[in-house]
Amino acid sequence: MNHFLDIHKTDKDQLRLIIDSAKAMKTARDGQPKAATDHDLPLKDRMVALIFEKPSTRTRTSFDVGVRQMGGQTMVLSGSDMQLGHGETIADTARVMSRYVDMIMIRTFDESVLEEMAEYATVPVINGLTDRTHPCQIMADVLTYEEHRGPIAGKKVVWCGDGNNVCASFLHAAGQFGFDLTFTGPVQLDPEMEFVGFARNQGVAVTIERDPTKAVEGADLVVTDTWISMHDAQSARERRHNMLRPYQVNARLMERAKPDALFMHCLPAHREEEVTSEVMDGPNSVIWDEAENRLHAQKAIMRWCLGA
Ligand code: CP
Ligand code: NVA
């Protein structure tokens, strides 16, 4: 049994196996109706709980559809409707849920909730986003980059804007998959040094460059995310917008990257804020493939967790 808690907590060779498995599963069901089951049904007779303490469109839908395609069943639970949201401990919830279901995916606020769930669950636990990281997203992003441009190792990825949870998982992936990452954003929103340090310790270059036009020079991939994450206080909205506006990804900025540079965004996007519609809907953007690949990457993650 494997938990999938973070990219830096999973061995490099295992991450590569997951990406390869996702590619193979995607190819195998090319052109099939969405509800058609896969040729193999590795999750047959398995029940998967999907717990959400924050909103979700992609994570919720892609996990649910992915389990069904592999022959399993899901229950989608809202944290606020569970006793979890009314004082029952995470540990007790984990012990009880493990008696009913074969795997738990949880989207939560504090990382400690995920960690406690994994410690006390006797079934695999998957991180569906915390305030600090979003590993399933970045597995989909690596898959997306590689299906468009080949191996991501040795490439230059530029993160523009807030050094948030998605940026953190990109830094983990830089270390594990061997690509360089340049962060460009305001100093107040730098990624935590722990994430930067992890990537650097794996031997890849992590650069902090305040000037976005310099940062994107020679980029193979430009990535951004919302200026206000679900865990950020709305009261900080104006201040964050003012700090982040110079880091908007627009056509002028993309022109400084390599001509064939890709653009990614985990979505949901706020058009004309962190990115213009011109870039989102432009020729370098692979955001819809990226969203689709959540499905394929997570199917591979779930199989890996269950050894199925
Ligand atoms: N990218 C992502 O995780 O989207 P949702 O919040 O819609 O799940
Ligand atoms: N950084 C965003 C990602 C949403 C998928 C958030 O945490 O709200």
Automatic annotation (TrEMBL):
Q: Which reaction does it catalyse?
A: carbamoyl phosphate + L-ornithine = L-citrulline + phosphate + H(+)
Give the pathway: Amino-acid biosynthesis; L-arginine biosynthesis; L-arginine from L-ornithine and carbamoyl phosphate: step 1/3
Q: Residue ranges of the Aspartate/ornithine carbamoyltransferase Asp/Orn-binding domain?
A: 154-304
Q: GO BP, one example?
A: L-arginine biosynthetic process via ornithine
Q: Which domain of life is it from?
A: Bacteria
Name the residues that bind L-ornithine: 165, 225, 229-230
The subcellular localization recorded is: Cytoplasm
Q: What class of enzyme is it?
A: transferase
Domain (Aspartate/ornithine carbamoyltransferase carbamoyl-P binding) spans 3-147
Q: Known InterPro entries for this protein?
A: Asp/Orn_carbamoyltranf_P-bd, Asp/Orn_carbamoylTrfase, Asp/Orn_carbamoylTrfase_sf, Asp_carbamoyltransf_Asp/Orn-bd, Orn/put_carbamltrans, OTCase_ArgI
- Cite the binding residues for carbamoyl phosphate: 56-59, 83, 107, 134-137, 266-267, 294
- Keywords in alphabetical order, please: Cytoplasm, Transferase
Under Pfam families, the record lists: OTCace, OTCace_N
Q: Name one GO molecular function term.
A: amino acid binding
Q: What is its main location?
A: cytoplasm
What's its EC? 2.1.3.3
Q: Which family does it belong to?
A: Belongs to the aspartate/ornithine carbamoyltransferase superfamily. OTCase family.
What is the annotated role of this protein in its UniProt record? Reversibly catalyzes the transfer of the carbamoyl group from carbamoyl phosphate (CP) to the N(epsilon) atom of ornithine (ORN) to produce L-citrulline.
PANTHER family named among the record's database cross-references: ORNITHINE CARBAMOYLTRANSFERASE, MITOCHONDRIAL, ORNITHINE TRANSCARBAMYLASE, MITOCHONDRIAL
Q: What is this protein called?
A: Ornithine carbamoyltransferase
Q: Which organism is it from?
A: Thetidibacter halocola
Gene that this sequence comes from: argF
